[in-house]
Specification:
single chain; alpha+beta; Glutaredoxin; Glutathione S-transferase Yfyf (Class Pi), Chain A, domain 2; 2 domains; four-stranded mixed sheet; 9 helices; globular; binds S-(P-nitrobenzyl)glutathione
Length: about 220
């Protein structure tokens, strides 16, 4: 059954892989599932046809037969459940991997998003410089214990899993801030994720979209 996801026809990051379709592409590449991509303009995101798939008018979405999903946590979990390679077979190890998916999305990602929003939307405000240290501290409050837990390990809990796919995807957003440089183990963890052939295929696929020349009119 054909899998179709949605993505920006032009991501604001110009192809740095930070839009959330990359994590879904990565999951599909890890399990070897081919997929099609429907590219959407910002206007199309808010039209009824897309809101029927995602009421919030966002990418990515996931369609497979009569199943339609939104939210990358749910989509990646679905892919990991239906195919081998992204979740351990042992029930307890599987539950721990799922816990880390939630931790990535609910505990680590929010302060990282807050930092991105502050830089993007508040950088020109008079109070920005005063507020920034507190926002960065909230990110460090997550990186410190994460780094402590990862320690010398390659991945969060045994072999690479959807937990690492999600955590690396979340941490990637910090690369441009330089904050990962204070945590060499996390920087190396992210680099290990980026070095995976499946990640590279996912990254290249979104880059091709975002660097394609517009069709001549
Ligand atoms: N919780 C949802 C999920 O995980 O699926 C969040 C989905 C989401 O934020 N989608 C964004 C979107 O559709 C794109 S990924 N935004 C359009 C809108 O809301 O109107 C967020 C994103 C966008 C751009 C960059 N970038 O350019 O660096 C990075 C991340």
């Amino acid at each position: 059954m054909t899998i179709t996801i949605t993505a920006f026809e032009r991501s604001p990051d110009g192809g740095k892989g930070l839009a959330r379709d990359t994590r879904v592409r990565w999951a599909l590449e890890e399990v070897g599932q081919p997929y099609a991509v429907r590219l959407l303009s910002f206007r199309a995101l808010k039209e009824p046809a897309h809101r029927a798939l995602n009421p919030f008018g966002q990418i990515p979405t996931y369609e497979e037969g009569d199943l339609a999903l939104f939210e990358t946590g749910s989509i990646v979990f679905h892919i990991a459940e239906r195919h081998t390679g992204l979740l351990p077979a042992d029930a307890n190890a599987r539950a721990r991997a799922i816990t880390w998916i939630f931790a990535a999305l609910n505990t680590v990602e929010p302060p990282i998003l807050e930092l991105g929003t502050a830089r993007l939307l508040e950088g020109d405000k008079s109070w920005y410089a005063e507020r920034l240290p507190a926002v960065e501290d909230r990110v460090r409050n997550r990186l410190e214990p994460l780094s402590g837990r990862l320690g010398e390990a390659d991945w969060l809990d045994g072999p690479f899993s959807a937990a690492d796919l999600m955590m690396v995807s979340v941490l990637l957003r910090l690369k441009s801030s330089g904050m990962l440089n204070d945590y060499p183990d996390l920087a190396a963890y992210v680099a290990r994720g980026e070095a995976r052939p499946a990640y590279k295929r996912a990254f290249d696929a979104q880059l091709a979209v975002n660097t394609a020349k517009p069709a001549a009119t």
